[in-house]
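Objective 1b: paired records.
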Amino acid sequence: DANLLKFLRFSFDNYNLINLLEKTAKEFDDRGNFLKDELEQEIKLPESAPRYIQLFLENYKEGKMPFPELSIDDQLNWLFYEEMTTHSNEFIRNWFSFDLDLRNILAGLNCRQMADEKNNNSNNITISNSVICQNDVSELILRSNAPDFSLSNRFPWIEKLGSIKQDNLIEYEKNIDTIRWETLNELTTFTYFKIETVLAFCIKVEIVERWQAMDMETGKQKLELLLTELNSGFNILEYFK
């Protein structure tokens, strides 16, 4: 169970790894699995890092990145999601598959909006430089001309996201995190006594933390929602009646 929790923290390791490699001087995020000196040692000689980080560092040092049209962050993210979406644990696999699809859909919508603002319809190159990994969703985003990428039947929330102007960043981000939160609830509907419920809780805590940093009032609302779910989500006495 503790090992599964590590997979939720690799995103922080990814952030720290890129910042160390690129010497950005950004603050080290201590929510990752590796301490700063440990990660610096992994950069020199990868031994304890997951396979995707070892592969990324090997390509980075040789200057042979497999997806040269992508940013260095997305180079790492591609390898990261490939490993997470094939994980043996169903929750890890399903959560990161959803997270990948959401990330790619948002990237596609953002590219289209930027192209519309510039009155430029030739935005396929921009989208192809923003969408990562290869699955049925990413393929549709790359080739579909439909406003919803022909994905609304699968993801009903796409049309709502597409209609929200991004100049209202707070509302836009609220809607995205609401989608994440509801998906976590769907993935843990019948996992009362399983590690999946704990993993979903940890992801929700990350959402709360992010909002407390961005907008205190929204962070307070998310925290109250989380506490309400904890208090009313499951009654162990009722379960054993």
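Objective 1b, second protein:
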Amino acid sequence: VVNLSEESPQKDSLAKTPQEAIQKMIELQKLGANYVDIGARSSFSKSDELDEAIEGERLSQFFATERPSNLLPLSLDTWSITNAKKYLSEIAVLNYTSTYFPDDLVDELARTGCPLVMNYLAADNPYALRKIPYTPPSKEAMMEYFSVTVPALKKRGVKILAIDPNLGMWHPETPNELKPVLQRSIIEAIPEIRKIAPVFIVAPRTNGVLNKELVELLLSKGVDYIRTHDLSMLLNLMRQTGFK
């Protein structure tokens, strides 16, 4: 992850300028990353809400900055339809943090062939999730969403790279002590989820540090793509567990 959103609490992946973002990308490439996931608006449940125009300006500055031609392919993390459509031809993956797929976005995904990472949420997007009544996350609802939506999008010509069952975007009323319990239940379900599509999942953190126990469990389940703010620590765990 390289994070362009100053309001995010994830300061270790924050880049305050496009040049700093590019330097972080170079460092991640040297470590062995396959993609860099660029985000310009925080999905954290207690971050300030920002208009998509602010996200768009941050992205515009980044994409306008020259970067090495052999640099890592980009995954764009956004729930803005406007910003997603604008950059589909310049990115390798759209990490779309929304469950709302209007026809114009679906048509553009099919036309450009840009692969999609689908995220599960109980609302249209992270901001909308804050405004609905709190209910504990449901594995059954997540499975139903992917089981219905993945084939529907494929039928319309959208390329699905992977699906993300979501270990990190929470309703603001979710008790902190419950999060690792919910994360464990989702991780345990990875083999079942993978029957629908390859799995893209965040390496879970507790108090800002990788949760070693949960990450080791995640690795044991055969996940396909791992998104992390802690690449060095994750690689060490992968070596320790013999993960290939």
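The radius of gyration is 17 Å. The first helix runs from residue 18 to 31.
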